[in-house]
Amino acid sequence: MRPPVTSRAELERVALELFEAHGFVETTVDDIAQEAGISRRTFFRYYPSKNDVVWGEFDRLLGDLEARLDAATDDGPLLTTLRDAVVGFNSLPPEAVAAHRQRMSLILYVPALQAHSTLRYSRWREVVVRYAARRLGQPPEVMGPQLVGNVALAAALTAYGQWLAAPGSELPALLRAAFDAIDLTLPPHRPR
Amino acid sequence: MRPPVTSRAELERVALELFEAHGFVETTVDDIAQEAGISRRTFFRYYPSKNDVVWGEFDRLLGDLEARLDAATDDGPLLTTLRDAVVGFNSLPPEAVAAHRQRMSLILYVPALQAHSTLRYSRWREVVVRYAARRLGQPPEVMGPQLVGNVALAAALTAYGQWLAAPGSELPALLRAAFDAIDLTLPPHRPR
Description:
Two copies of one chain form a homodimer.
Chain A: H1 8-22, H2 29-36, H3 40-46, H4 50-55, H5 58-71, H6 78-89, H7 97-109, H8 114-136, H9 143-165, H10 171-180, E1 182-184
Helix pairs in contact in A: 1-2, 5-6, 5-8, 6-10, 7-9, 8-9, 9-10
């Protein structure tokens, strides 16, 4: 028996260990609460659902990404600024890398998490689209900013896939390679 | 009362009408079967689930896309070949455009369909990745082909979004614009 967990981060660590050992679908909230030495009710004070544990601090991190983009100077190419912000968003201290691999592998490959992931991807993309709209001086809903959002997500997901497939590889280098392979020449916006 | 439907395509038309009128979630298989004048059992002979009706002939069309790419000459830039194949895949006779709009709007915007859509997107992407791998002379799982697959899906989804947002707009032109805005300089593959 370990002492009861007393933080969101600890609860997350316990849950990820159980998902790794027994599978995400097979692990129940009761299993997690029991292993963490807390009640089911306490679990739900930390996280609204089992899915949300996998995403951990995503909301706070998304705020960080937005702050990075708000603070960025506008001199470099748009995709370079985005690349650097996304690399920063994904730079982790060495001791956090193993858990991030575990988390991302669940997010990308567990079918039961796909629907939930789609919603989170949308929120990530919206942050990128807002930045692109500001940089391009276009409304967020038109093709230019939307294409930037979708293509940036494509680059990030490609880098994640490569990272998960190659133990020991470095996520920041893969993100840089994916973004640097892409050059966008966006259509001007012609209001109707 | 209309006469009982006698083809997959007719059943699909009836179902799409009901989804449009009452909502996708609100419409049951029984509702569709009743409106189509067939039994529930007959419905399931045409389609394994309500979700699958939305995707219609996707599997057959995906085979067409693959055949187009297999038949393509390799002289133009990779993304140009892909663009032309995807435009061909999405070129519809005028009388089919309204139903395609309805279908794509369900696929892109109904949350209940998101998980299912993710699986179909993967299959579409796999076709593109196989072509890119062949063109690049690289294994399909490495960064170059994977990036092509993800970026092509990003371009297609962007074009679909713009098309759905603007009644009367032309999907082929939007697909061309999205693909033409992207230039890829793919990293060479260095086997380890």
